[in-house]
Amino acid sequence: MIQLQGTVLNGSNNTFEIECDDGDGNPLIRPCSFKSKRLKLDTKYYNPLAPGDRVEIEIEDSESRKGLITALVPRRNEFVRWNVKGRAPQLLAANLDYVILVTTPEEPPFRPKFIDRELAQAEHQNLTPIILVNKYDLPESQNPEFQRRLQIWEDIGYKVLRVSAKSGEGIPELAELVTGKLSALVGQSGIGKSSLVNVLDSTCVLKTGSLSQKYGKGTHTTTKGSLMHIHLNESLVNGLPNVYASIIDTPGVRRFCLDSIAAADLALYFREFRNFLGKCRFGMSCSHENEPGCAIQDAVESGTISGERFESWRTIKEEIETGSWDD
């Protein structure tokens, strides 16, 4: 038997495509299953492995086309959401350099609270989030209220990319960001994640979907997450050949629910709140709702914390408390 390691590209249940480390510069991809049902994986998750995971595998010899997964290499990080239907946390991606949160000004409609939930989850898991506005060619992108919301995120330190897969605007900046990195594209269905991959690498032809006319929401075209090594178009990287990026295209979600964040702790993951925590009259026991001498409410009144983000925090906190999540 030969022991080696590899990277999970995709899979579900008990069959995964593993990019193995024995390919001498041209990694071999083997379908692999678990060696034992008693394999020591964290059983709290809806799915045991995610794209980007590193695993140890066992093969009979170097010519083997299949393998057995024997162990999970400890994750550097992970991005998770609570799967309401499965009643368990769902792994979306692992070992990331960036989690790229894709939104649009319209088609599907702009949902800033959806992004605020994703940002809180990324902060909780010590990930580096990037907000990417796709379809920036749409007229709605110039709406002053939309622009002001993007500016709020930028003012608190988040990087916001303004991009159009259709017109090409912002695509070179996106290519520069993802070069040599492992990034996950996360967002609603129909938001254009697959289109972004297609324009970064014209040799990729990922299926793209249209919006549901009845609900204005995307249809699911990516049914399971998949890690791809894309060959960036030379026109996007100053004519340099053989420039690659690793992208995980995650399934579109209509509802992003937080996992493992208590309502009382949510303020920790709104980064502009942190400097004020513990400075309220009632210290860390302050709920930041109606107490006198609340440092966070004072910051909202002075404009140091935006009213929109405060209301978003308050709504998400209530969702955690009630277990009722807005779409």
Automatic annotation (TrEMBL):
Annotated SUPFAM superfamilies: P-loop containing nucleoside triphosphate hydrolases
Cross-referenced InterPro entries, in alphabetical order? G_CP_dom (IPR030378), P-loop_NTPase (IPR027417), Ribosome_biogen_GTPase_RsgA (IPR004881), RsgA_GTPase_dom (IPR010914)
Judged by the first EC level, this protein's enzyme class is hydrolase
Q: What is its main location?
A: cytoplasm
Entry-linked Gene3D superfamilies:
P-loop containing nucleotide triphosphate hydrolases, Probable gtpase engc, domain 3
Q: What is its EC number?
A: 3.6.1.-
For this record, the Gene Ontology CC terms, alphabetical, are: cytoplasm
* Binding residues for Zn(2+): 280, 286, 288, 294
- Enumerate the spans annotated as EngC GTPase domain: 94-254
Residues bound to GTP are 134-137, 187-195
Question: One GO biological process from the UniProt record?
Answer: ribosomal small subunit biogenesis
Q: What are the entry keywords?
A: Cytoplasm, GTP-binding, Hydrolase, Metal-binding, Nucleotide-binding, Ribosome biogenesis, RNA-binding, rRNA-binding, Zinc
Membrane-spanning ranges: none
> Which compartments is it annotated to reside in?
Cytoplasm
Q: State the protein's purpose.
A: One of several proteins that assist in the late maturation steps of the functional core of the 30S ribosomal subunit. Helps release RbfA from mature subunits. May play a role in the assembly of ribosomal proteins into the subunit. Circularly permuted GTPase that catalyzes slow GTP hydrolysis, GTPase activity is stimulated by the 30S ribosomal subunit.
Cross-referenced NCBIfam families: ribosome small subunit-dependent GTPase A (TIGR00157)
Please give the subunit comment from the record: Monomer. Associates with 30S ribosomal subunit, binds 16S rRNA.
Report the protein name in the record: Small ribosomal subunit biogenesis GTPase RsgA
